[in-house]
C-alpha cells in the first residue's frame, strides 16, 4: 500500500506516471503460458543504482529485494486464467517506477468437430446452399482463436472472434457453402488454432475429422453438344456421347428416320455408338440422371469425293477415246476392216488378203 501511495504522490507532482521514464527491461517482454505449465520471467533494472526491486502480483508476487538488479518472477504451475504481474524498482531518492508484464494463459481446444457430418446429411444438390457448423470446445482465450475451413488443400473460409473472456469457452464457426459439381468427392474439415505470435509453439492447432462431400449434378457432355461427322469408306464411324454427372448418366440414341427400323437391335444404352448401317443423317444421344437430361446432336454427312482421282479416271477415258479415234482414221478401211498397210492401198485393187 505504501508503494502505491508514493506512486500516487509522484504522479500528482509530475503530472505523469513515473513509469513513463522507467528504465526496466523484461525478458521475455511478453509471456504465453499454457494452463497448468510453469512460468518464468526476469525483470532487470537499467539504473546504475537502486534501493530495491520487486514483483507486485496477486498470484506469485515477490516482495522488495535489495542488493540485486535482476529479479525473476516464477510460478511452478499456472492455475489461474488472469495473471497481471508488475515489476517495480525503488530508487535511492525514494522514487519508484514500474513496468507490467504481459501474460497470456492459454488452453488449446479440447475438441474440434463438424456438428453434423456430411455423410449423415446426405448428398448435396448443385446450386443449393448448405450450412455447416464447426464446434470448438474449451478454448482460451477466444480472442486469439482463428478457425480455418479446409476443402482439400485449400482454405475456403477464415473466422476470428471478438471475445473478452479470458477463461475457456465453447465457440462455433458457421460455413455457408453453395454446392458445385467440382466439390463432389472433396474433403471438408475445420481447424481451430490459437494465434500465439511468432516464435511460439505451433502445436496449438486442432483439426476436425475430414468428411467427404457428395454433390448431385446433371449430365454435362465432355465434347461439344453438336458435332458433324463424315462417313468414311475405310472404317466405320463412331459417335461419342460421353458425359459426366452424379448419379452416373444413362444413355439412349435416336437414328435417322430411314434406318430406325433397321437399328432396333442396336445397343443404345452406352456412351458411344458404332452404327451397323453407315448412313448419313441426323443422330442424337440423350444423357439422363435424377438431376436432369441433356441431348447431343450429330450430323453425319457423306465425305466429299476425291476430285483428283475422278479427274484421273476421266483423263484415262478421254485419252483412250482419242487413241481409238486416231486408230480409226489411220487403220480402218472403207469396207470396215483394219489394215496396217493402208498407205499402199490403190483404189479399185485389192490390198491383199485380210
The gist of it:
By secondary structure, the chain is mainly beta.
Word description of this protein:
The chain contains 3 helices and 26 strands. The strands form 8 sheets. Strands 13, 14, 16, 17 and 18 form a 5-stranded antiparallel sheet that branches. The longest helix has 25 residues. It starts with a helix and ends in a 23-residue tail after the last helix. A hairpin with a 5-residue loop joins strand 4 and strand 5.
Topology pattern, helix = H, strand = E: HEEEEEEEEEEHEEEEEEEEEEEEEEEEH
General shape: rod-shaped
Structural class: mainly beta
User: Sheet with the most strands?
Assistant: 5 strands, antiparallel
In total, the number of domains comes to 4
Secondary structure: number of strands? 26
Give the strand content: 35-45%
Oligomer category: single chain
The CATH superfamily name of the largest domain is: Immunoglobulins
Count every helix, treating DSSP H or I runs of 4 or more residues as helices. 3
CATH class descriptor of the largest domain = Mainly Beta
Uncertain residue ranges: 1-17, 342-354
Average pLDDT, all residues: 82
CATH architecture of the largest domain: Sandwich
Give the N-to-C terminal Cα separation.
157 Å
Evaluate the radius of gyration: 48 Å
CATH topology of the largest domain: Immunoglobulin-like
Question: Helical residue percent?
Answer: 10-25%
